[in-house]
Specification:
mainly beta, 8% helix, 1 helix, 138 residues
């Protein structure tokens, strides 16, 4: 049976998404966060459910999302035994001389656009949430 596939050409919402980092990576989820300065908050998350393959640095800048090449599609299908439902490809600045090619295969994909605070604030506004690692002071 041929599963429905998304070779995702990412369409990001309006905003400044220059800085990126990995905030969750486990068997059930791979989550990237983006913003213009990740010190205090981020405003965008790309959430990959049940990731099967991830080739991506922990932090990077200015990704350029693109459709996966036929070679990438074939390589992932060989490694996984089938084509994944979601395959995302991009080039990014990881601090080296040349951009890094990145590839993520997963069962599901979602874009979350909301403010996520990376530190505790008693006066957090409605619609803001805290990153999973943020805890109130004791």
């Amino acid at each position: 049976m041929d599963r429905e596939r998304q070779q995702v050409g990412i369409q990001l919402p309006e905003g400044s998404w220059s800085d990126w980092d990995v905030i969750t990576w486990n068997a059930g989820q791979f989550r990237l966060a983006a913003g213009h300065d990740l010190t205090y908050h981020h405003g965008l998350e790309l959430v990959f459910g049940d990731p099967a393959f991830v080739s991506c640095p922990a932090t990077f800048h200015d990704p350029v999302f693109r459709m996966p090449t036929n070679e990438e599609l074939m390589r992932i299908a060989r490694q996984l035994g089938e084509q994944p439902p979601v395959l995302v490809a991009f080039e990014a600045d990881a601090g080296g001389r040349d951009p890094v090619s990145c590839l993520i295969a997963a069962e599901r994909f979602e874009v979350v656009h909301e403010t996520v605070l990376r530190y505790w604030r008693d006066d957090a506004a409605p619609g803001q949430r805290f990153a999973s690692w943020v805890r109130p002071p004791m």
